[in-house]
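R.M. (postdoc): so does anyone remember the format we settled on? I'll just put the structure tokens first.
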């Protein structure tokens, strides 16, 4: 009687193996999917870092160019001031027209 009671409920080793295989196959598919997604995100991260580095390099280059332009404009402004002073002292002429307000702070 004890054997009849346990035997119908006892699962065979093959059915346990099949259940384990089904569960492990599902987990392996999920792990594989996650690995693919992680690889995609890592590649995207590398591309993003490269893009950010390129933007930072461009920003640095733009800033350097801006500073070169400002120095050049300052040198040209100083030259125009000296040229106007030279002309006023060596060439007798009426007073030149007023400097436009857009430039009055620079000259």
């Amino acid at each position: 009687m004890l054997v009849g009671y346990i035997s119908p409920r006892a699962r065979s080793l093959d059915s346990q193996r099949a259940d384990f295989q089904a569960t492990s196959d599902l987990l392996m598919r999920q792990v594989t999917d996650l690995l693919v997604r992680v690889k995609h995100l890592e590649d995207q991260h590398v591309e993003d870092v490269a893009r950010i580095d390129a933007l930072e390099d461009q920003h640095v280059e733009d800033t350097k160019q801006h500073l070169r332009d400002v120095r050049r404009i300052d040198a040209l402004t100083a030259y125009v001031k000296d040229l106007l002073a030279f002309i006023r002292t060596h060439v007798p002429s009426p007073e030149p027209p007023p400097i436009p307000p857009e430039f009055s702070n620079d000259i």
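R.M.: ...and that's the designed sequence above, right after the tokens. Also worth knowing: Residues 14-91 form one domain. The chain has a mean pLDDT of 85.
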